[in-house]
Amino acid sequence: MSAGSTGAAIVAVGSELLGTSRLDTNSLWLAGRLEATGLRVARKSCVGDDPREIAAELGLARARVPLVLVTGGLGPTDDDRTRDALALAVGRPLEMRADLLEEIRGRFARRGIPMPSINERQAMVVAGADPLPNRRGSAPGLWLEDGATVFVLLPGVPREMEAMFEESVAPRLARFAGPPRIRMVLKIAAMGESRVEERVRPVYAKWPDHDFTILASVGEVQLHLTAAGEPEGARAILEAQRQDFEAALPGRIYGVDGQTLEGVVGQHLRSSGGTVATAESCTGGLLGARLTEVPGSSDYYRGGVVAYSNEAKTALLGVPAATIEDEGAVSEAVARRMAQGVAERFGARYGIAVTGVAGPDGGTEGKPVGTVWTAIAQDGGETTARLLRLPGERASVRGWSVASCLEDLRRRLKGEAHA
After folding, report:
1. For 54-88, what is each residue's pLDDT tens digit?
2. How far apart are CA 221 and CA 243, in angstroms?
3. 360 with 384, same domain?
């Protein structure tokens, strides 16, 4: 592996990672650390405990990149076969290291218990590899340089893996790393991915030598920006790119990096001395739950009503039964009265309401599934309402409705009209 190489692959070993019971969090952590040191992650994969499968994956990885990090499969049991797989992949034998065996025995002795014989296999090392100490566990790691490829074997236990990487791997990677890469994430709420992409394409064209990634989830789009180089210069590039994206999406970028929509709304409410209450039908309390995810939200969140039935809308929020009869529960008039009613009952400056057809049943030709009305009432101010036509299944409709309510409130608090 030559100086300046920046490609890396991460292979997570463990049959449990191929099922539904265990998430591969090690790869996420390693990707972040590698990126921070200027190493580009070109490949991530999960493979079961079969040593032939692991060896095959190591062969695929080394054909693509000069650095391959492997997590898991270094324990003492029969299914811990990563050492065997690496030996198979590089055509080298496994050797027993007496010094490692004594270290492992000593670890058990300090705990006052004899070492089980199965732990002896943890002292096996691929010929030519350097052992990596594990101060938090019994399984040593390995560093092996084989031709143009460096293989690094790390434990699967996160706390052991992280400590070993920081103490024994990161310092050795410094000579291979390129310029550090810094990331910035711009967040847009209640706007479709295709609409965002259409508006920001000119920004991509302005920065042709930079990578941008757009990611979409329910009710949110994220733009991931990266820049390489010395931190000060890289941050200046990211800041210039952020300004370009904000110009392409005026008023729509609500936050950066770890900021959340509910957190930003809370900041605006707290700084303005505003308070809010929620009236929900189809979202069933999800809007109130989002607002109260923020620590200290009791400063501005007064409470909420889940008025799922028509009777509850009348009894708890003061929506006239005649309005529901004439306009329907999913209507502009009902949403407005719900918002006004909840603001009045809780003495809040703002009342937010949402009523809609989340599905999968209940839709009609005039109000199909995904029809949602939202409204914001303001004490002494205007009540506004908005009709949403949302695609997707029930969870998506509900999630989009909540994101739209929060985004509309954010823009109201900033004195902006919704898009």
Report:
1. 999 999 999 999 999 999 999 888 889 999 999 99
2. 17
3. yes
Q: What is the pLDDT of residues 9-22, one digit of tens each?
A: 999 999 999 998 88
84 is written with which tokens?
């065997």
The reply to whether 2 falls in a domain is no
**Tell me, what's the pLDDT at 2?**
37
Name the pTM for this structure. Answer: 0.76
Q: Residues 234, 237, 241, 242: what is their CA dihedral angle, to the nearest 10 degrees? A: 60
Is the predicted pLDDT of residue 89 greater than 60, yes or no? yes
Query: Are 406 and 302 in the same domain?
Result: yes
Distance CA 60, CA 8 (A): 12
Burial degree of 100 (CB within 10 A; 0-12, 13-18, 19+): middle
Is residue 123 within 8 Å of residue 104, measured between CB atoms? yes
State both tokens at 253.
């970028």
Mean of pLDDT values over 1-6: 42
Residue ranges making up the domain that contains 189: 181-256
Tally the domains of the chain.
Answer: 3
Based on its alpha-carbon atoms, the radius of gyration of the chain, rounded to whole angstroms, reads: 28
In a domain, 1, yes or no: no
Q: Is residue 26 part of a domain?
A: yes
Looking at the domain assignment, is residue 108 inside a domain?
A: yes
In whole angstroms, what is the distance from residue 309 CA to residue 284 CA? Answer: 11
- Interval 150-175: pLDDT, tens: 999 999 999 999 999 999 999 998 77
> Which residue in this structure is represented by tokens 């999968």?
360
Closest CA to 248 of 218, 298, 214, 282: 214
